[in-house]
Description:
Blueprint: E1 3-8, E2 26-27, E3 30-31, H1 32-43, E4 48-53, H2 55-67, E5 75-78, H3 83-91, E6 99-104, H4 112-125, E7 127-132, E8 138-142, E9 145-149, E10 156-157, E11 161-164, H5 165-171, H6 183-189, E12 195-198, H7 209-225
Parallel strand pairs: 1-4, 1-6, 4-5, 7-12
Antiparallel strand pairs: 2-3, 6-11, 7-10, 7-11, 8-9
Amino acid sequence: MHRNIIIVAGGKGLRMGAELPKQFLPIGQKPVLMHTIETFHRFNPEINIILVLPLSHQKYWEELCDKHHFSINHKLANGGVTRFESVKNGLELVNDEGLTGVHDGVRPFVSRETITRCFNSAEEMGAVIPVVAPVESLREVAGESSFARERQNYRMVQTPQVFHTSLLKKAYHCNFEERFTDDASVVEALGGKIHLVEGNVENIKITSPFDMMIAEALWNKSKETQSFPESR
């Protein structure tokens, strides 16, 4: 099936405390976003890559591509006010056939194994998301009270979230709701069943200076092994 990936990179990096948006910060002298795009290109050089960026960031991105001689083919879509709107804009550059994944631009360490599981499983099941189990104890907060919860009943959600393109497009015809925190929640609101596959613990979302420290360590490790970390 024809495969597409929408990479959403609309963050302003406020939690990072840096002048540059987090997707443009360097890891190993190259912007985070380029590492992310390269990961999907390595997975499948024929994959249709759609990068969603705020219009105000697109000229700077083009300058970065020139500076780093970045030549991986991709299409640009305008970012929206919300992630929902950004994905919707990206979907306009995708036809109704095949599979479409949506991935956070600041998750450069998703493994090839995770991507493969997501796309292969989505071909059969229609709607698939990668998850990892929490390792710390959980408590639910309700007002001034809190309650212990069984962590084995919960999973932490990652990307890429992959769907039959026709299903994802149909889901995004609805109006935005605050409960839409990711693409799975949009498809679920349509009545779609979401299937879970194993993610990889290195697939962190870079949102803080501490995350950048972890990202640098992962990058240095990947140089030693000549490959990006695989899931464990």
